[in-house]
Amino acid sequence: MATQMDFMRISITAKVNLQDKTSGTGSVYKGIALAAGDFCAAGSDCDGILQYGGASGDNITIGYFGHMKFTAGQAITPGTRVTMNASGYCNPASHTDLVVGRNAELAVGSGAVGRGLFNFITPPPFEAQSAGNADFLNFTTVNSNMDEDAALYKAIDFTTADFAPKGSGGIATAGTANGILYATAASGQIAAIRYQGEVLLRAGDVITAGRNITATTSAWFIDADSGDAFVGVALEASGAPNSGGTFKAFVDMSTIQIAVDCNYMNY
Questions:
Q1: What residues contact 2, with CB distance under 8 A and at least 6 apart?
Q2: Domain residues for 160?
Q3: What are the C-alpha distances in Å from 108 to residues 104, 105, 200?
Q4: What is the CA 2 to chain-centroid distance, rounded?
Q5: Could you say which DSSP state residue 128 is in?
Q6: Peptide linkage before 241 cis (omega within 30 of 0)
Q7: Which of 164, 225, 252, 254 is an S-S bond match for 157, by CB 3.0 to 4.6 Å?
Q8: What is the pLDDT of residues 3-27, one digit of tens each?
Q9: pTM of the prediction?
Q10: Domain count, the chain
Q11: Cβ atoms < 10 Å from Cβ of 89
């Protein structure tokens, strides 16, 4: 069934050739910067999405608010908030990105055309869209490996802006892990941690649903034992071999406790 799209639009003069109508690889349905009359460089200078293109010097039409088609630069799941990258592709938004809209239909593959709801007039930063927002903290990284996907959901020592070296397992190292990496960044750039609420964690061993969890060597999380400083409780199991896999948990790393009896330990 055809979908009727309703969006606000504006006509500008193209300053480069934007008449390629090829779906996915062409010019149409990509982010445009008004001043440049060309593809935007990032969400911060994107003013809308090209709906009707043209050659250099022709009038083109961009949509800046409403229900529009877009071209995905990465796979985007249903309902995901999106931002614009260089070349005008939509990507899933992460911490510190400007959120220009949301995927409004089924999953969209990389390079495919999808439909979304957009607002380029006042795009908020991603953190403003986060539930509560108080459980996020920004920090400047010092580790060159913190820009890798495998680094996500590992334990972070906020005071050193690096991975927690020995986690928070054991009384001697209690408090070393005080956050979970939720937005990656290269060394010297801004990343973000979460320290409270329902989160994903990186598993270092078998995880038992309903058990308390602690951080350990390599900044992974494992089931807590007596004497460990636990950071939360696992909401789902994670079976072996799963070192480095992810699982859901509820954490409060602002008030780490020590497991001292059968209510707080595993047997």
A1: none
A2: 136-258
A3: 10, 8, 23
A4: 31
A5: G
A6: yes
A7: 164
A8: 556 899 999 999 999 999 898 899 9
A9: 0.53
A10: 2
A11: 22
